[in-house]
Amino acid sequence: MNIMETRKNEPVRIGFYVCHCGVNIAHMVDVEAVAKYVATLPNVVVSRNYKYMCSDPGQEMIQKDIREQRLNRVVVAACSPLLHEHTFRGATEAGGLNPFYFQMVNIREHNSWVHTDRLEATRKAMALARAAIQRVPHHKPLEVKKVPINPDVLIVGGGIAGIHAAITMANAGKKVYLVEKEPSIGGHMAMFDKTFPTLDCAMCVLSPKMATVGSHPNITLWTYSEVVKVDGYVGNFKVTVRRKPRYIIEDLCTGCQECVANCVYKEPKFPDAFNLGLGKRKPVYMPFAQAIPSIAIIDPEVCLNFKRGKNPDGSYTVSDKCKKLCVVACGDRKAIDFSQKAEDKEITVGTIIMATGFKTFDPRRTPYYGYGVYPNVYTALELERVINASGPTEGHLVMRNGKEPKRVAIVHCVGSRDENTNRWCSRVCCLYSLKLAHLILEHTDAEVYNFYIDMRTPGKSMEEFYNRVAEEGMHLVRGRVADVYPDPNDTASGRLIVQAEDTLTNRILKIPVDMVVLSVGLEPRPEAEDLRRLFNLSCSSEGWFLERHPKLAPVSTFTDGIFLAGCCQGPKDIPDSVAQAGAAAAEAFSLIDKGYVEQEPNTAFVLAEECSGCKSCIPLCPYTAISFNEETKKAFINEALCKGCGTCVAACPSGSIVQNLFEDQEIFSEIDGVLAPLPQ
Amino acid sequence: MAGVAEAAVVDRTTTLQTLLNTPAGKRMITCIQCGTCAGTCPYGDYMEFSPRLVINMLRRGFIDEVIKSDSLLRCVACYACTAKCPRNIRLTDVLLPLVKEQVLMNNTQMPAEFQKSLENMHRYGNPMGESPRKRTAWTATAGVKVPLIAEVKREVDVLWFVECYTSFYARGQDNSRATAKLFAALGVDFAILGNDEKCAGECGQMTWESGLFESLAEYNMKLFGKYKFRRIVTGDAHAFNAFRFRYPMYGLTQPVEHTTQFFARHLEQLKPKLKKPLNMVVTYHDPCCLGRAVGCYEDPRALLQAIPGVKLVEMVHNRVNAVCCGGGGGGMWLDTYYKQKGMDRLSERRVKEAIATGADVLAVACPYEVSRFEDALKVVPHDKPMVVRDVVELLAESIG
Questions:
Q1: Which top CATH class is A2-144?
Q2: Which CATH class is domain A604-659?
Q3: DSSP states of A347-360 as a string?
C-alpha cells in the first residue's frame, strides 16, 4: 500500500471542532471547556466550538482551516456518524484532504441526550474527544470503490403494497420478481368488502391492479413461493426462491376450473382459508374468484390421490388411489401433475422491497371476549367475509346459526393499546369498525353498538366519514368492553351480554346482543423474525421491521438496498400502504438509476507474508468473501464482497488480517485515549 | 393470560399524597379512562365512584370527595380490574387499599361485623375471636403426625402456614387434615408454627387497616426469624397473597407456594397414590388471590384431572374472568352491610354458574370459599345436589 508514504514526513496537524447542536449538546456539555481542553492535546493545531457544525459556515470553517492552518487531520465532536459523518468527510475532501483523514465523535446520542450530570457529561465528552485525537494520526488515505448495481428488483409479498410497488417499477421498465407465499396475490385487501372512507368495493379497485401484475411483461410473478436464502449485498443480492408444488403446471392451466367441477368430492368439504374457515372448498380449488394467477391448486393433505401426512422432508407421497376425475376433465391440457416437487429458483437482483404485511390479533388471547367459545363472536375480518358478496353467505349477513342478527356489538381495541397483549394503537380499527357498522346497517335492520375507548379518525376525509356514519344512527358507547358472556336468562338462543362501563354516564351497561364483532388489531406476522434474519433487517421491539429513520428514512432499512412498504413496517391503512409502496419504489429507482453503489472502504485485507494458510477465517465469513489460493497457500479477501464486519480480523490466529479504518494501532490508540486520566 | 405483575412497586410508606410519584402511581397517570375496571368489577353497578373515576379524581385532586363516600367499601379485592387493565394499573392492591383506609377513617359508621373481626384479629390473632391456645387443636384428629417447628429444632423444608379458617372452622379443618395427609403421603419434611401462629393479616392489608396488618406482619416475621425453613406453603390463598406481595417488604426472603402449586409440582410422585376413583363431575372456582393475582390457573386443574374418575367442566366465567366469591377485601365480614345496601351476594352469583354446569362438586382452593359457597347453595335453588370441596380434600380422598 504505497499511499502510506504520501504524507509520511509531514507532522500531524489536527483541527478539532465541537458542535453545540443548538442546545442539544451545549445544554449538557460545556463545549467551550471541551474545546479548551482538546487544544492542550498533542498534534492539535486548532480547537473550536461552533453552534451548528453541519451548517454551511461550519463546513466552510473546516475547509478554511485545512487550507490556512495546513491541517492534515480533522475531528468533529457532534451527533451520530449515521447522520453527519458523510457531511464532514465531504467537507474534509472539499478542503483538499482525503476524506478518511476525518474522525467523528458522538457526543449527542451517546452523551448529552442520555446524561443528566453536566460535569460528568463534559468529562465524558473530553475523554471521547481525546480518543479520536489519539486515533486520527494513524488514519490512512482510503478510496471509495464503486460497484455496478443490478437493475432487477425483488418484491416480497403480493398484498396491495407489493402489487403497487411491482407495477410502479415494472411500468418504468425494470424487471420485477414478485414473490407471494399464498397461491394468489391480493393479500388482506382482497378479503375486505368495502373500504373506508370512500366505501368503494375493495375488489373493484384491487382486481384491475392484480390483473396488471398477472399480465405485465416486466413482472415475473411467483405465487405459492417463499424466499429461502439471501446472499450478497446492495446492487447484487443473490436470492433463492422456493416454489412450492401446487400440483398444477402453471403454464398449462387455463383457469377453467373443470377439474374443480369434476372432483370426486361432489360438494366442498374442507375449510376455505380465504373465507377464514367460514366456507368450504374441495381438495382442488381456486383460491377465490378473482385469484391471480388464475390457476387451480391441489391440497395434498386432503386430496385422495395423496397419502395423508407430510414426509419428513415436507413432500407428500402419491397414493394413486383416486379415480382422478380432475385429470380426465383437464384432458389434453395435461395441467395436473401429482409428481410436482418443490423447486428452487436462483435470481440476482440489485434491490429488494419487503411488503410482507401483517396478521390480525388472535382474540383467544383476550379470553373474556369469548372468541372461539361462543359461536356468535366474530372477528372483524370474518365479518368482512360474511358481508362480502363473494363470501360464504354470498353477502347475506347471517350468523353461524343462519339467523340475521337483530343487535350487533362492535368491540374496539381488541389486542391494541393493551399492556397485556399489544401496546400499540393499530390505527385502522376505529375506521374499519365504523365502516362495518355502516355495512351492517346497510345489510340488515340490526341495532349496532360501537364500544370504543377513543375514536381515532386521523387522515384525509376520515373525520368526515365518522360524522357521516354516526348520522346513520348507531350507538356509540365510550367504554372498553370488559366481559362477554351468554345471557343467563336466555341460554338457548346464543344471545350474549356485552358488559362495559359507559364512561360518559358513569353507568355499567349490560347490552344483550345476537352478534359480537371484535375489532382485532394488527400484529407482525409470525414469520417476521425469520424474514428479519434472512434479509438481515432490524425489528422494533414489537416485531415490526424497523425503518432507518422514523421521519427522514421511513421506507429504508439499515441494510442498504432493502426497502419497506406497507404493514410489515407498522399498522397502516390502504392509502398509506400504497403511498409507502410508491416511496419504496422511488428509493429503489434512485439507487438503480445511479448505476453504482459506493462501497465504504472499511474492508479487510490479508498480509500475505504473515498468513499461515490455516483457513480458520474462510468458514467464518458471513459474506463468503474469503477464498484460499492453493498456489500461494494464502487466504485472499475479495474486496467487493467484504462488508467490513471484522469477524475474520478477530479470528485470525496469526493476526495477519487487517481492516481499513480499524487497524490495531488505531483501535489501541483510541482505547488509550478514552482511558487516560483527565485533568481535575 | 398472566396474572398481575409480581414486583412490589410501592413501599410501606406510600400514601395517597405520594402515590402518583411512585412507579405504581406513574402507571395511574397513564390511565386512558377506558372503564374496563368498572365494567369488570363485580360490584361495579353499586359504586358511586368506579375504579376508573377514582383514578381520575386522584389525578385531578378531587380524591377527598371519594373518601367521603363509602363507595369503595364495595371493593372485594378480587383483582378483576387489575388483571384486565390495559395499562397494568395496580388498583386492587395499591390504589384501592389506600383509598379504603381513608374511607374507614372518615366513616364514623363502620359496619359492626367488620369492626368486630378486625378487633378480634388484633386481640386474638384470628378474625373469629377464638382462643389462640386452640389453634392446633385440630391436629389431634389429623391422623398423621403434624410436627411443631419449635420441637423439631432443625431446619425443615416446608413451613406450613395453616391460617385461621383452616385451624378453627370445622370445614376449614377438613382442608388441614387433607393437607397433612398429603404431606405425609409424599414424605414431605414439614412443620407448623403451632399456637404461636397468628393471622397473616391479608384481610387487614386489603382493607388497608394498615396498622393492624403492620403489627401482624411484624409479629409473624419475628416468629419466622426464630426458625429455619426453606419455603412457606399455605392452603390459604389470602395468606399466600400477603406472603407473596407484602411480606417481602418486611424482609421475607423464602419462596412461598400455595398448596395446589406445591402438590402440582409433586404431581408425578402423587399420581401413583391417587388410586381411588371419585367418579364425579367437578367444576373449579379460581380463587382471586391464586388466579388473577399471580396467574396460577392450571395447577389446581392439573391436580383435579389427575384424580381418577374426575370430569372437569368449566363455568361461564373462569380463569382470568372468574367471579369472586365476595369474601376478599373484608367482604367476608361485610355481608350484612352489603345486604343493607341492596346488593346481591357474589357467592350466590357464582354458585348459579356452578349449578348451570351440572357438576356434582364445586372445587375451591381458598378457605373463604367453602363456607361462602355452602351458604349460597342453601339459598340458591338447584335440582341436583352439589357439594363444595377444596382441591386438597379431593386429592386426600382419592389417596384413600
A1: alpha beta
A2: alpha beta
A3: EEESEEEE---EEE
Q: Are A585 and A169 in contact (CB under 8 A)?
A: yes
Q: What is the ipTM score, two decimals?
A: 0.94
Looking at residue B10, its pLDDT comes to 63
pLDDT digits (tens, 9 = 90+) for B227-281: 999 999 999 999 999 999 889 888 999 999 999 999 999 999 999 999 999 999 9
Question: B317: which chain A residues are within 8 Å (Cβ-Cβ)?
Answer: 483, 485
Instruction: State in words which class domain A358-523 has.
Output: alpha beta
B39, A413: Cβ pair inside 8 Å? Answer: no
Angle at the Cα of B42 (from B297 to A449), degrees rounded to 5?
100
In DSSP terms, A451 is beta-bridged to A411, A477
Same domain flag for B98 and B241: no
The domain of B339 spans 267-399
Q: Which of B2, B50, B320 has its CB closest to that of A501?
A: B50
The CATH code of the domain that includes B137 is: 3.40.50.1860
Flag whether B298 is in a domain.
Answer: yes
Q: Are residues B341 and B393 in the same domain?
A: yes
With contact defined as beta carbons under 8 Å apart, do A387 and A188 qualify? no
Cβ contacts of B381 within 8 Å, gap of 6 or more: none
Q: Which residues of A touch B36 (CB under 8 A)?
A: 480-482, 500-501
- Whether residue A365 lies within 8 A of chain B, CB to CB, comes out as yes
Residues B27, B138: one domain?
A: no
The Cα of A520 is separated from the nearest Cα of chain B by a number of Å equal to: 15
B298 touches chain A (CB under 8 A): no
State how beta strands A515-520 and A407-414 pair: parallel
Give the residues across from A239 on adjacent strands. Answer: A230, A347
CB contact under 8 A, A480 and B36: yes
* Of A505, A451, A499, residue with least CA distance to A474: A451
What tens digit of pLDDT does each residue of B224-241 get?
A: 999 999 999 999 999 999
Radius of gyration of chain B (CA): 20
| pLDDT tens-digit readout, A296-312 | 999 999 999 999 889 99
Q: How far apart are CA A13 and CA A25, in angstroms?
A: 26
B46's grid cell: 353499586
**In chain A, domain spans:** 2-144, 358-523, 604-659
Secondary structure class of A123 (helix, strand, coil): helix
Helices A574-594 and A160-171 pack at an angle, to 10 degrees, of 40
Q: Say if residue B139 is in the same domain as residue B219.
A: yes
Please report whether residue B354 resides in a domain: yes
A576 touching B (Cβ < 8 Å)? no
Contacts of A442 (CB under 8 A, 6+ apart): none
CATH of the domain at B298: 3.40.50
Residue A341 burial class via C-beta count within 10 angstroms: exposed 0-12, middle 13-18, buried 19 and up:
exposed
Cβ pair B126, B198 in contact under 8 A: yes
Are B39 and A420 inside 8 Å of each other by CB?
no
Do B119 and B260 share a domain, yes or no? Answer: yes
Among residues B60, B89, B106, the one where a domain terminates is: B106
What backbone phi and psi angles, to 5 degrees, belong to B234?
-140, 145
Residue A519 and residue A433 in contact, taking contact as beta carbons nearer than 8 Å: yes
d(CA A444, CA A448): 10
Radius of gyration of chain A, Cα coordinates, nearest whole angstrom: 31
Q: Both B116 and B257 in a single domain?
A: yes
In this prediction, residues A396-409 reach a mean pLDDT of 96
The number of folded domains in chain B is 3
Relative to beta strand A44-50, strand A14-19 is parallel
What is the distance between the alpha carbons of residues B346 and B340, in angstroms, rounded to a whole number? 15
| Spatial separation of the C-alpha atoms in residues A52 and A207, rounded to whole Å | 52
Q: How far apart are CA B176 and CA B138, in angstroms?
A: 8
The pLDDT of residue B204 is 62
Same domain, B157 and B69: no
